[in-house]
Amino acid sequence: MGEAAQKICKLDHPNLLDTLNRAYAEEWLAYYQYWVAAQIISGPMRETIQSEFIKHAQEELEHADKLAKRIIQLGGTPLLSPNEWAEYARCGYEVPNDHFVVALLRQNLDSERCAIARYQQICEMTFGKDYETFKMASEILHDELDHEQDWEDYIQDFQEGAHFFKQP
Q1: Please, what is the end-to-end C-alpha distance for the chain in angstroms?
Q2: Containing domain of residue 129, as a range?
Q3: Contact call for residues 62 and 28 (beta carbons, < 8 A)
Q4: Is residue 81 part of a domain?
Q5: Which of 32, 77, 136, 168 is deepest in the core (most CB within 10 A)?
Q6: Is 164 domain-assigned?
Q7: Residues linked to residue 100 through DSSP beta bridges, in sequence order
């Protein structure tokens, strides 16, 4: 049950566990968001971005695993039902009604920005009070910032490409 982990944590445990469970729910929804986008994507560079979506889905799944382990170390229980994910998540699942590559990139960019805010919150909450959770959250924050940059770069490439092809 992580007795030492609980003792060295200088935070309100119920609040921390609630926040970590919210992040856990968001990671599962992000995983599915990427996975489903990889299945339905259409448009230019489909195969390249499809493989990026699969890669990012795997990273989100790894984040969920880290969160579950930390929740357990702190004496909590990760959310046990997928039905709870949407209820707990601030960064929810957005149905990809538009399958075009740029629409999916923008949709996932919004999700990454929400995740960045979540991990910034956890870092601020745990800094100097729970080093292990802070370390985990800052590592995930680093990944989410990289994801944001990936999608911004692809969107910019599409914008520049569209501008180039409009030239006489």
Answers
A1: 67
A2: 12-151
A3: no
A4: yes
A5: 136
A6: no
A7: 42
